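Why run this: before we spend reagent on co-expression, it is cheaper to look at a predicted model of the complex and decide which construct boundaries make sense. The entries below are exactly what would go into the expression plan.
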Amino acid sequence: MAEVRLEHVWKIYDNGVEAVKDATFTVEDKEFVVLLGPSGCGKTTTLRMIAGLEEITKGTIYIDGKVVNDVEPKDRDIAMVFQNYALYPHMTVYENMAFGLRLRKFPKAEIDKRVKEAARILGIENLLDRKPRQLSGGQRQRVAVGRAIVRNPKVFLFDEPLSNLDAKLRVQMRAELKKLHHRLEATIVYVTHDQVEAMTMANKIVVIKDGVIQQIGDPHTIYNKPANKFVAGFIGSPPMNFINAKIIRGEGGLWVQTSGFKVKVPKEYEDALADYIDKDVTFGIRPENIYDKMFAYAPTPENTITGMVDVVEPLGSETILHVKVGDDLITAKVDPKTKAQEGQNIDLVLDMERMHVFDPETEKAVI
Amino acid sequence: MSKKLVVNIIGWIFGLVWLVPFMGVFMTAIRPMDELLNGWWDFSSFHPSFNNFYQAWNHPTAPLSRGIPNSLIVATSATVLPLVIATMAGYYLARYRFPLKKLVYIVVVITLALPLQMVAIPLYEMLLKMNLLDSYIGLILLHTAWGTPWITFFMRNFFTTLPPQIEEAARIDGASDFKIFFKIAFPLSLPAIGSAAALQFTWVWSSFFLELITIYTPERFLATQRIPLMRGVYHVDWGVLSAAAIMVMMVPILVYLLLQKYYIRGMIGWSMK
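The model came back. Tokens follow.
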């Protein structure tokens, strides 16, 4: 297994479109790195450049310490699982998995051993004689993974491998891929637009937007300390509330003042906000950090706001409230036992320890 | 309901318009001449026989027993050869980037619109200079040249519908360009190759014009050239002519049936969804 390193990698197409701009990141040995971003952000292009399916315009890609810019895909010792699985439709499952080994002139017995071992790990031993068309989506997915693991490559590349599966199967395959990662001790680069996949599987997430890397970090950091408004809004569901606000000096310290409420900034954030006093900012708070006052842990007048309930969405395990506060619509994820009713007022408590503030111009995180 | 009925009636009318002349040819072929004088639809006396087929097969001046094997040689070669060339060319056009690619593609499309009659004289002179007149090699080369552009166009369009990821997966698996073509793209394109083969074979088989200007030794005459020769100067035996027409027609129909079965299986068998 091995490390993958990208240094100042660019992809500019003939028509001038800059798909990837100055990407620099490292995938450590045995690490599970997720490239996350909305569709068209350049994450798949980045993966395809690592695979060698796409030429790079500028920069350097290293695999296992060696520059691979001009190395053919087959000589990079990588395996890739495609979004549509890309199984060979005219070959059986066995032949699909054996194809790469046969091309590499492995002895027959070794091929047989490896294919059967991979099939056993993935639970597809009874499907080896079938053609891809006779398989369900989940089974095809397994065969695609099997085709990758038989070769025992240095690096696995996954291109949105779960997006064609139904929701239930996706959850199951997510867990299986994670287990497989531990079992194979593999270096994995995984592309997805699904933040849940990224959060649940990654050791490290690379968030990309418009070809530019926005933030690199472990899931915990990405969630709790987003580098900018885009990352903050992209991770988490429902997304973070962004409210136009002003930082003002008031009774006992700094306050966040919006069109509809005023809440106190915790002491530890005051230094960071020193340059923003009396200036416009974007105040951010996640729906899960807003509580129905009836179930709140420590309500005080300084962190409580009042608004009118616009929509109630009960989900069973929690209830989503859309609450009109001043000119803003705030989303809150509250205890399902809430008594909130549409059209009535409600008191909400904000966990100000988990507040975020973004510069409205650069959109960079201040807190 | 009534709409369906109207569509059905129109369908039947077209079908009959299509079938009636063929029925005429068929009846002429299997019945003696004197039974047909009042029209083939008169069944007051009916004595079917295969005599006309026998006559056409063993005709004294233009036997089909020689013509059909000749046609088979030409049509098979002039189907396989352009298919091999054009499948590779189409694949290259669909998948690779090279200088002047657009121009090459445009030239291919333009040649599709070229009428054969326009280039007949230069082609004749070319064959004459190459010493290939009155030979099957010359004729096969002409049909190959004539078939290659449309099959290239057809195959290129087919290849663009195949998801490139399958070939990319093979590339990562370690396949060279040739391996990808022969082990992946070629087997996946068999349905299209089957369709192209059926069409090209039919066209070459029923071609008359090129044969007329390039083949002139009677023993080498192809099946289509022999039918008009069965007409006497003073007497036209319509029965023999019809029987010959039917026999010549049967071959492409058989090829269709054979390949249709094959490419339908291919279509169902290899599509992923």
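Chain A has two domains: 4-234, 241-358. The mean pLDDT of chain A is 94. Bring this page to Monday's planning discussion.
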